[in-house]
Design a protein that fits this description.
Layout lengths: L10 E5 L3 H14 L11 E5 L6 H5 L7 H13 L4 E3 L9 H7 L7 H9 L5 E5 L2 H6 L1 H8 L3 E3 L3 H15 L3 H17 L5 E3 L17 E2 L1 H13 L3
Parallel strand pairs: 1-2, 1-3, 4-5, 4-6, 6-7
Helix pairs in contact: 1-10, 5-7, 5-10, 8-9
Length: 233
């Protein structure tokens, strides 16, 4: 067992985007923790705040600014004792700088963690994500620093990807999975050596082994980073 109790940090989850993705991160942190009994697990505090406005809608100029509630939720998580904060929402990382400036504890950056894991392993990845994430090039920037290029769906295919994401949010996992499999296969056919399930709803329906190339789960990567940093490694 690495990292003594005294060195451990409480993990804070800035959640609600969406609720099932929040629960998914919680479970993946538990699974990533090297524990043999309850007392060896990490303390985790969660603010599952589904009132945070749609991030993609705002980025595309069609919705309310989520920044005020993102900052409020981050501060609340910090006040509950979090020593680090994770956001199980890819698109919300567009607001990472503002959130980090509002709190006094580290806010993990999902895209940088994914780039760290993939560096030296692949040269081209496919990206399934929200239109907001694609527009802001959150993954493009972090992956470029690791020497990795990004393949994205065509305009019409991206409409389908968004349909998959909102289908999962609405509880229609079967439809979401069907679309994700089809669009992921297209990216592999276009030369992707791995496919990033770059919206936290997508790993709920698209998993490693589903495609002819590895499927990268950013939620799992984020969970492993939470454990590593919380244990002081």
């Amino acid at each position: 067992m690495t990292g003594g109790n005294k060195a451990r940090k409480t993990v804070g989850i800035l959640g609600g985007m969406g609720p099932e993705a929040t629960a998914d991160l919680f479970m993946k942190i538990i699974k990533a923790t090297p524990a043999t009994k309850d007392q060896e697990h990490l303390r985790i505090v969660v603010d599952n705040n589904p009132r945070i406005p749609d991030r993609t809608a705002y980025i595309l100029g069609k919705g309310e600014d989520p920044t005020p509630l993102l900052l409020e939720t981050a501060k609340n998580v910090e006040s509950m004792g979090a020593g680090l904060i994770a956001m199980p929402c890819n698109t919300a990382h567009y607001f990472h700088g503002a959130i980090q400036a509002a709190v006094n504890v580290p806010v993990l950056h999902m895209m940088r963690e994914v780039a760290r894991v993939l560096k030296g392993r692949v040269e081209r990845v496919g990206l399934l994500a929200t239109s907001g994430t694609l527009k802001t090039e959150l993954y493009h920037k972090s992956l470029a620093e690791a020497g990795i290029s990004v393949i994205v769906p065509s305009h019409d295919d991206q409409i389908e990807v968004m349909d998959a994401i909102y289908s999962v949010k609405g509880g229609n996992l079967e439809k979401g999975r069907e679309i994700a499999l089809r669009q992921g296969a297209k990216l592999v056919g276009a030369g992707a050596q791995a496919v990033i399930a770059g919206c936290t709803e997508l790993p709920l329906v698209l998993r490693d082994g589903d495609l002819e190339a590895p499927v990268i789960d950013p939620t799992k990567v984020l969970a492993e980073a939470c454990v590593r940093l919380a244990l002081g490694e």
